[in-house]
Every structure is written in structure tokens, then in C-alpha cells.
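Replying to the earlier thread about multi-chain prediction with a worked example.

Input:
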Amino acid sequence: MKILTFVKQILDSEAKISLKEDKRSLNFEERFSLNFFDEFAIEEAVRIKEKISNCEVVAISLGSKKAQEVLRTAIAMGADKAVLIETERYEILDPSYTAKVLSAFAQREGFHMIICGERAMDDENGVTGALVGGYLKIPYVGSVVRLEIEGEGKAVAESEINGSFCLYEVTLPAVFSVRKGINEPRVPSVTGVMKAMKMKIPVLEVSSLSPPTSKTQIESYDFPEKRPQVKIIEGATPEEKVKKLITLLREEAKVI
Amino acid sequence: MGDILVFVEHKDESVRKVSYEVLSAGKELKNFYSSRLYAAVIGCGVERISSELKKHADFILTVDEEELRDFVSENYAYVLSQLVQKYKISVVLGSHTGYGKPVLCTLAALLDWAILADLTGFEILGEKILFKKPFFGGRIVSHLSISGDTNAVLTFRPKSLKTGEGDFSGEIVRERIEIKKDERIRLLKSERKEGKKVDIQEADFIICGGRGMKSPENFRILEEIAEIMGGRVGASRSVVDAKWRDYDEQIGKSGKTVSPTIYIGCGVSGAIHHTMGIDTSKTIVAINIDPNAPIFSIADYGIVDDLFTILPLLKEELKKAKEQT
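Result:
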């Protein structure tokens, strides 16, 4: 069994971001982290590997040279191999571009399962897994909360869809995107970290995977509109405060 | 831009509110481009649902087949692709939800169209349309465009578009499509966890509890208030990590992004992880004993007081307010 897991290095949520003067690009503090949901994907792949014999986990990242860091985390957590598909710099990419490049790699590498996180916290698309399933013409299950391998070439995946829990039986190869709660990602062991530090990570040029031209463009960036200053509701008693709040919600905000 | 197709979502035999939002976006695009607006209703036993939509599209394409009883996104995407080809559609719109997302992504891949996901609005500027989309947890808003005549699939974030009055006199068209059921994926069972409660991402009212709620038992009053208001209870990350509440109620960066009309944070400190998930709410109310809690910097109204004194009073007042309307 061969499992691929897609991991992404994203701008850390605490990193400072500002707009360049023309608003067409961003300045940001060089602080990156492993996408939160991808930890669950790596963990799930490693857990499957630990349960069955003859299983290999390969972590793949599409990103800048610096993205090697998240691949090392994947190795430290128990992935066997890692490959970086190198882009020039960190930037938000067109969703079908990303999915096509990853699909091309997966096809070349060969696999039985692809496990990825349910969305990246920078572009917030949450579409890569489903698109890869579509491009590779294999089944896809999203928002997976439980994943089991069932005998030869089959998996059972439980997925949360708008408040319903749906149990699917899937013939492999297939793509799964996992959400928080599927497992508790491990803290890498010291030997894992040592292994990751020593590991040589092969780098592939994006161009070797015949990337498509992006059909969508980012025209400009803005900051969201600022919310008005808070009104702290004063009152002699709690009763008065609550009554005032209800009046404001009704007459000023007009929401009840 | 040519004709437009909206993938309609339904639940409990009626159209989900998110789909009315998308249909109103479809109407705006249709008016601008003088094109036709189609709505696609797919499933099993969905004929009655189609009649709900007569005022919201020119044509309501209804695909009602036994094979579509189970939700398998591959099968739904296949049906949509057949409709797209038959009616020469050039844009497909839908909601960025648990149903819409997998179906529309699979469709975009099948057709090899461009995709823009989780959009919160758009602006028509001459011949160009700029689509609005938040990045980095809403810290940045981007404006995206699609090249030239590229056909595209677009998904919109629930509750980010206004629903308008429907003024169409639409025609229901019954479509017979031979379903090539994907045998590689099969639904074994499906279980509704929340009963008939509204989805948290669709809720107009959310009352969210944080660490300040002190214990899981204290969430009962939040449940009661949510029920009075026909809304949902939300939870901060620390509360979910402490296993007081389930993950599907988690609001924030690593949980759900919500945009209710009223959000009330109770004992929620308002760390950036959390506020990223609520800043598109219409009115934010914060109740916290700590006047320096960061939640007050994003709230519209704040009460600095003891939660356990305020909440019973709030419950009574909201009940009264609800009875008056």
C-alpha cells in the first residue's frame, strides 16, 4: 500500500501582513507554519501504515524551498519519504493549478490512497482533494472523521456533511480529505526528528509536471472593513443592562 | 458570459436557504448578461421541491431518479455535467457547503473548467466581474477575476449573499438522465446528528460559549436560548479541546466560519483564532466579566458582567421579544 499525503506550508496566522502600494501584492513577515489540517492527514496516513504491513507514506508539498520544513515535520511524524515540488516563492495559487500539478505528480508516483487536510488556512478554498479526485477520476470523500482499511483495496470512510454522518465504502485508489477530530496528531519523537533532519528531500521543478496556465487572477487585495467601535452597555443593575441590549438590538441594529 | 446554472441544495424536502442566496446572485448575473438562469434540482422524490423555485429561475431542471437517493457527489456531478452540455451552460453556481463543495469540485474537474471557491460576493465592472474572497482567515480580502471566456464553477460562502424576491415565472422541466452510477463508492448509512436543527453555518442566531462558561453543564442555558431564537450553540476551540462540546460546533480558524445576523459570545475571550470565524456576522454581542477581553474589540455591543447573572435575564428578555414578533 502506498499513501500520498499533501502538506502545505502556509503563512502563520500571527505573521504580519500588509498591502503593497498598488494593492496588487502583499508584504508579509516571513513566518510560516504547517497547515493545521494537514497534521491530521499525516497522522492518519502514519496510523494506517502502523496497522498494516508493507505500507509506505510519501509526503508531498507544492511550495517554495522553505516548504521543506513542513516535509521534515511529516518525516518526523513517521512518513517514509518526502518530495518538494518547488515554486519560486510563497504565494496564493489558482486552485485548479495546484490540483493539476499535484494530480500529475500522484499519477507519476503511483498510489493507493491520497490523504489531505480538508482545507488550507491561507487560501481557505478546501477544494484540492476533491479536484484531485476529479482530475484523476477516482472517488473522493471529504470531511472524513473516521477512516478504516477494509481488506483488499477497499476503505470505509465516515464523513460529516452538513450535520449528517455518512458512511461510505470506497474502492481504492481514492482521495480523502480529513478534518480535525479524526485523530490526535502525535508530537514527533526525538528519533523521528533526527531522521527528518538527516533526510535528503528530493526537489522537483514544477515545470517537469507540465503545469497549466492559471485561468483565474488576483486583481487586488484589501483589508476588510473595520467594525465600528464597541458600545459597552452601562446600567445600574444586570436587568437594566439586558433590557438596554434588547432595545439596541431591536431599534438600532434592527436584528430582532 | 452565457447561460447560468445553479445547483440547488435541499434538505427535509425543501430548498435550503443557501440556494436562494445563490439563485439571487444568479439573477443578478443573468440580468447583466441577458442570459438564462437555470436551477438544477437533483435527487429522489424532489418534484415538490422544484415547484418552490418557480419564482427564482427561468427553468427548473428536475432530475428525479431512484439512483440519486443516496448522496454520492460523483453521481450528482455527473448529472450536472450532462445538464451543462445539453443546455450549453457557461457558469455553474453553488454553495460552499458539505454538499455543494464536493459536487461542484468534481464537476469543475470533469468539465475542466476554472473554479473559484468560498466567495463572499462580486462586483460587475463593465465587462469584468470581480469576485470577492477572504484570505488568511478574513485578515485580507481579495478581488479575483476569471480570464476572458473561461467557463467557471463558483461556490459562495453561506450567508454572504442577500436573498432577493423572486419574480420569475419559471418553467419546470423534467429531465431524464441515465445515471452512470459510480460503483466504486457506495453510501452504507447516513445518520442525522442534529435532528432538525438548522445548520450552524446557516443559522441566523448563534450563541457561543467559551471557557468562561466554566463547565459543560452550564451550556444548557445556551441551548435553551438557541432554541427560543431558532438558532444554534457554538463553541470556542478551548471548549472543544476540553471535550465539553463537539467539534462540529467549533467556530473559528480551525473550525467553522459563521455569519449569523446575531452572534452572542459568552465567556469567549476572543482570540484571533476565534474572531476570524465570526467577523462577517451582522451584529456581535459580547458578554464577559473581563473588560479587557479582546472580544470587545470586534463586538458591536458589550456587557461587562457576570455571565451567570446575565444569561437567565437574557433568556427571559429574548423570549419576550420573540413572543412580541
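Chain A touches chain B through 77 residues (CB under 8 Å).

Feel free to reuse this layout for your own posts.
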